[in-house]
Specification:
alpha+beta; HU Protein, Chain A; structural constituent of chromatin; DNA condensation; DNA-binding; three-stranded antiparallel β-sheet; 87 residues; DNA binding
């Protein structure tokens, strides 16, 4: 399912205009994104937890050339599925 399919599903369930459904979907994604950018986490009971994981710097290889490449430390989004989603 992509974003527009999600907007359509919300529109079917909630009614109203398609624009209001799109605004609602955008609001949810923007809220999650902003919380992760600020170093927080978002826990949705029965679904899962969105969090940010700090990755250490490391050495990797360029798959085309085999040359060693330095990968700096970075933050990466992480999702851990909840029990409701696993069942």
């Amino acid at each position: 399912m992509n974003k527009m399919q999600m907007v359509d599903a919300v529109h079917e369930k909630m009614g109203g205009t398609k624009k209001s459904a799109e605004d609602l979907v955008d609001l949810v994604f923007n809220t999650i994104t902003n919380e992760l950018k600020n170093g927080g986490e978002v826990s949705i009971t029965g679904f899962g937890v969105f969090a940010v994981k700090q990755r250490k710097e490391r050495e990797a290889r360029n798959p085309r050339t085999g040359e060693a490449v330095h990968v700096p430390a970075m933050k990466a989004p992480k999702f851990r599925a909840g029990k409701g989603l696993k069942e």
